[in-house]
Amino acid sequence: MNSNTRVIIFFLLFFLKVATPYAQTNKKDKQPLAQILKQLEASYQIRFSFADDTVKNKMLTLPSEDISLEHLIIFLEEKTQLDFELLDDRFIIIREAEAEKSSSKRTIETLEEVIVTNYLTSGITKLNDGSITLKPDAFGILPGLIEPDVLQTIQALPGVLSNDETVSNINVRGGTHDQNLLLWEGIKMYQSGHFFGLISAFNPYTTKRVNVYKNGTRAKYGDGISSVIDMELPNTINNEFKAGIGFNLLNTDANATIPLSKKTELQLSARRSLTDAVSTSTYNQYFKRVFQDSDFSKGKNNANTISQNENFYFYDFTAKFLYDISEKDHLRFHFLNVQNSLNYDEQSTINNENEALNSSLSQNNMAISGAYTRHWTPKLESTAQIYVSNYDLDATNFDIINDLRLIQENEVYDGTAKLDINYTHNHQFKFNAGYQFSEIGISNLADVNNPVFRSYIKEVLRTHGLYAETHFLSHNAKTKIILGSRLNVINEFNMIFAEPRLSFSQRFLNYFRFEVLGEFKSQTTSQVIDLQNDFLGIEKRRWVLANNQSEIIETDDQTIFPNPVIKSKQVSAGIHFNKNQFLVSAEAYLKKADGITSRSQGFQNQYQFIYDIGSYNIKGIDVLVNKQFSNIISTWASYSYNSNNYKFDSLNYGNPFPNNANIEHAITFAGTYTNNSFKFALGLNWHSGKPTTHPSVTDNPNDDQITYEAPNSATLPDYLRTDCSATYAFNMSDDAKATVGASIWNVLNNKNIINNYYTLDNDNNINKIENESLGITPNVSFRVRF
Fold it and tell me: Has UniProt tagged this entry with the keyword Membrane (predicted)?
């Protein structure tokens, strides 16, 4: 029996062992209040917070399962003589009751109902609108992660996968990464990763909340046909100084919340890599993974060329200024700067003379925003926001042997104004409406010295979006309906199209919930690959803008390809069972995207240089089984099936063939253990190999080209990775708390092939190029909070 088989058997036994449900207590017997509260948390998907002395020695009979949450709280207050205060996301604080307070006078704030708290681990919550909410400050632990990296964390969700292990290539239900809408404080981000994709570019220690939508997206979100990842920072002034500083084997960071006055506050964070100062085993593994198939590594392998003096670093900086002009008027300013930079010298001896030139790659996303919120009445509020997001990718590549210099640049300028209005009629009806105007300009530059060639293309597009939706929550909180639509107008193309959105949730038989989600969406920006060695072969993708052209336009200095507006349709239906911290969830979905181009799909086979416009169709199912025990142990198993096929008019004779991102089967087993200050997580990830195309056995070795088999008719070997992580928190002083952590990515050091392709050498021999995933990669961290 090999080691991989033993690991799989261990996870199966571990999961089956901890998934055995506990025996139930007779509901007619009086039980300790603390025990009653645990059962109510599971039944009503709520969370109680209290001091042990508050509920000590109080006994209670379990109330009826049919009463509403409002009546449940009144019942508990009457029977216990305690005060139950309802907070955000149905969190309830229990305190000693005030003498003058009576339950008949209490008010309850109607909030979104939580379906599952501690979804997989603490800090992850599933809501009844179909979305998933992450709260990094309450984050527990996940296998392989010792810090709450936002874009790594969401990959633990069923239906979310990165087939090359990066946060810059996240596939949500088969979509490409550029089809994900990433928002930071309402600002669209065009860069998501550090280390060219291996680390999230967003500091998790300043992020308060992340909302993730795979379907049934709110009408206020335009763009991003695959998913929405909406990151929010704290938005209230606490008048309390907080700070934190920490490091791991890749970077160091610091953050602070600084009260400036009773009405103003400043939130700051900064992170800087250690990679240009200290070389660690973690850095070496990441460096090998990122640059293994780039011009940088190829230069090192060239007998006549030596690459040296490489300098690589990354950093990010964020700032948020909060000003409460009055109780009703709030002003917020935001700033973000994300940077990746690589420089290296390329040396060679030509005609007995030493030559050295510097190649470089820089990737930057800078954003600035101002937002004004007005609370007109307790029921009506509005928010106006203006932002600018600028993305810049620059590369200078020298080839000394061939006396070649290539300069490339991809720049995005996004200026957007938004108005969002929320009206709460009562605890059952809410309304949301708004308007968004965006002006996006994207330019692409290529400049070659030998032969002299320069191409510069810039396109600008202005779009208008109007949206409205209504929320209905039944009195007993069992039925939730969100119905809305978005109207997009593109004047340059004379295009107007509507995008209906639906979210329906119905709880029945107390522990079951039926859910239907649907949406129409579109996007005008996408990423394409012109050549695999663009931008030093490291960040090959460049942003382009929809131009609504019907044919290729060629001039003396440029080629303009048609880029349609991408449109998608998706519908899903799911059923969830949740009782006593035992969750079984199954969701099936259908998804179709039209207007994709072959340039956006990263073909490395016979279609690499062929242009066509097509679509993809996806059928899939996501299944999750999650069992928790008293917030100490959480175990889960998930399975995703995905059938994802292209259809292009010219490619493969118009017949469907597998999508490059198609991962047909994916399975995860994982478990976490939390005991006071100690946390431990262990997980196994397996998925079938992604599609690939092999050369044909009938290939003619003398025709200077490779003859391939049918496109994506083969798959890479299956992928298997085991991860573990652990953290321990302790007090350094009365005011300082510390956390130390350690993790190992790919514990078994499996050699996973994440991509392959074929090239011809000078003798017309076919060479097979394979890209490997990260090998065994340890990391440690230390953090202090004040």
Answer: yes
* Cβ count within 10 A of residue 53: 8
Top CATH class, 3-109: alpha beta
Cα angle value 441/336/187 (rounded, 5°): 50
Instruction: Give the residue ranges of DSSP H helices in 92-246.
Output: 150-153
Could you give the residue ranges of the DSSP H alpha helices within 129-188?
150-153
Alpha-carbon distance of 218 to 470, in angstroms, equals 10
The H or E element containing residue 10 is: helix 3-18
242-785 carries CATH number 1.10.1740.10: no
* Half-sphere exposure (Cβ direction) of 161: Cα atoms closer than 13 Å: 28
Separation of alpha carbons 772 and 765, rounded Å? 22
- Residue 300 backbone phi and psi in degrees, to 5: -70, -30
Decide if 249 contacts 280 (C-beta within 8 A): yes
Residue type, 468: A
The 10s digit of each residue's pLDDT in 212-269 is 999 999 999 999 999 999 999 999 998 899 999 999 999 999 999 999 999 999 999 9
Residue among 426, 417, 509 nearest 472 (CA): 426
Q: How far apart are CA 520 and CA 569, in angstroms?
A: 5
CATH 3.55.50.30 in the chain is located at: 3-109
DSSP string covering 29-66 = SEEEHHHHHHHHHHHHT-EEE--HHHHTT-EEEPPPTT
Q: Per this entry, what is the length of the chain?
A: 786
Contact status, residue 705 vs residue 720, Cβ threshold 8 Å: no
* Cα–Cα dist 428/701, whole Å: 71
Nearest in space to 83 (alpha carbons), one of 51, 57, 111, 39: 51
**Within 13 Å, how many C-alpha atoms sit on residue 480's CB side?**
23
Listed in order, the ranges of the chain carrying CATH 2.40.170.20 are 242-785
Q: Are residues 236 and 286 in contact, defined by beta-carbon separation less than 8 angstroms?
A: no
659, 715 contact by CB (below 8 A): no
Reading the block at residue 114, the tokens are 């939580």
Task: Give the DSSP letter string of 58-99.
Answer: -EEEPPPTTS-HHHHHHHHHHHH-EEEEE-GGGEEEEEEPPT
Contact present, 293 and 307 (Cβ < 8 Å): no
The helix/strand/coil state of 211 is strand
Rounded-to-integer distance, Cα 25 and Cα 42, Å: 14
Q: Give the pLDDT confidence of 428-475 residue by residue, as tens digits.
A: 899 999 999 999 999 999 999 988 889 999 999 999 999 999 999 988
Global pTM reads: 0.86
